[in-house]
């Protein structure tokens, strides 16, 4: 059994745990790639927004029936939680609208007093 020392972590490991012609073990390379992708994900998405949207649309068109089945199934299994979430959202929106109306009325009253 042949061994090799990883240039990143310094651990002596079996040659099979390294990529061909590389001095870093597969686990170190995977860790580096994971960190890199997390760090650059947002930038990539911004730079390739149109292309990614085209791919999403194409995937949806090709898999429309299956996607809709999964959505219906999820809704049926989680009906009460979804309804509760929607109810809370509507309540919050109603509070926001009332607050905005109140501010507008107060600002109009201040203008009238001047």
Describe the secondary structure blueprint for this structure.
Layout: E1 3-5, E2 12-14, H1 26-47, H2 49-62, H3 64-77, H4 79-113
Antiparallel strand pairs: 1-2
Overview of the molecule:
With 114 residues, the chain is mainly alpha-helical. The chain has a domain at 81-114. The protein has four helices and two strands; from the N terminus they run ββαααα. The chain has a two-stranded antiparallel ribbon. The termini are far apart.
How would you summarize this macromolecular structure in one to three sentences?
With about 110 residues, the protein is mainly α. It is about 75% helix and about 5% strand. The protein is elongated, with a radius of gyration of 28 Å.
Count of individual helical segments: 4
- Structural class from helices and strands? mainly alpha
Could you tell me the number of beta strands? 2
Gross morphology:
elongated
Sheet with most strands: 2 strands, antiparallel
Rounded mean pLDDT is: 92
Distance between the termini: 91 Å
Kindly estimate the percentage of residues that lie in beta strands according to DSSP: 5-15%
Radius of gyration (CA) equals 28 Å
Q: What percent of residues adopt helix (DSSP H or I)?
A: over 70%
Which segments are poorly predicted (pLDDT under 50) over 5 or more consecutive residues? none
């Amino acid at each position: 059994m042949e061994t090799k020392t990883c240039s990143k972590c310094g651990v002596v490991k079996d040659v099979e745990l390294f990529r061909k012609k590389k001095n870093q073990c597969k686990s170190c390379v995977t860790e580096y790639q994971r960190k890199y992708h997390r760090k650059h994900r947002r930038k990539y998405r911004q730079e390739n927004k149109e292309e990614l949207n085209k791919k999403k649309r194409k995937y949806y068109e090709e898999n429309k029936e299956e996607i809709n089945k999964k959505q219906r199934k999820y809704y049926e299994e989680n009906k009460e939680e979804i309804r509760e979430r929607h109810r809370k959202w509507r309540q919050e929106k109603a509070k926001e609208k009332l607050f905005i109306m109140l501010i507008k009325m107060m600002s109009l009253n201040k203008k009238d007093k001047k």
